[in-house]
Amino acid sequence: xxxxxxxxxxxxxxxxxxxxxxxxxxxxxxxxxxxxxxxxxxxxxxxxxxxxxxxxxxxxxxxxxxxxxxxxxxxxxxxxxxxxxxxxxxxxxxxxxxxxxxxxxxxxxxxxxxxxxxxxxxxxxxxxxxxxxxxxxxxxxxxxxxxxxxxxxxxxxxxxxxxxxxxxxxxxxxxxxxxxxxxxxxxxxxxxxxxxxxxxxxxxxxxxxxxxxxxxxxxxxxxxxxxxxxxxxxxxxxxxxxxxxxxxxxxxxxxx
Length: 256
Known about the structure:
Layout: H1 3-15, H2 20-27, E1 32-34, E2 39-41, H3 44-48, E3 54-55, H4 61-73, E4 78-81, H5 88-94, E5 99-101, E6 106-109, E7 122-126, H6 132-144, E8 149-152, H7 160-164, H8 167-172, E9 175-180, H9 186-191, E10 198-202, H10 214-221, E11 229-230, H11 236-253
Parallel strand pairs: 3-4, 7-8, 7-9, 9-10, 10-11
Antiparallel strand pairs: 1-2, 4-6, 5-6
Helix pairs in contact: 4-5, 6-11
């Protein structure tokens, strides 16, 4: 159920073109649908502005297909993150309208698009090419949320001149998502150059002492650039959702 669909339903009841019993029939699966292995949240877009997202990790292809079909039947968009490579062919065969991004490990389709956000894009920055899969997950999520974005890849602190060339782009951005592994220094640098919100994503890339992303995480959490927000390791989706919440709050409040 989406705000638009619910509004249309209520309008039809008010106008007398839809009976109360028929309206109840359309609402009978609210607020969720129990399909044994999952309780599919059909009200999340109504509450938060974005439909439930399916975490593919730990789910079978059949479970992902079942949840995706319930969301589509309710007229909602579908985004699956962390989709295992071996599950992708089966999922795509069963739900052919889904688009696969193998780098991001996502499949998605926008059935009920969010209002396209006006204004400058969100810039998604990576320290290195190894960080691109996490950044692509963020980019797919932003696209599903109707938020324009731009890529700025491989501009880490080992070659700071690459980043400095792009400072005008960063300063024009609505927000910046910075994805980095190793010691995780890049968000501090970006945070010191711009006034817009900065969301830092540590990745698990790096040699032994990187500790699977913990070193980058700790570095970002102790950033000397005030106000940098940090999400979990490899969580490009979480960073994009943080931006989406920010944008959603702007939509609710409207122009100042």
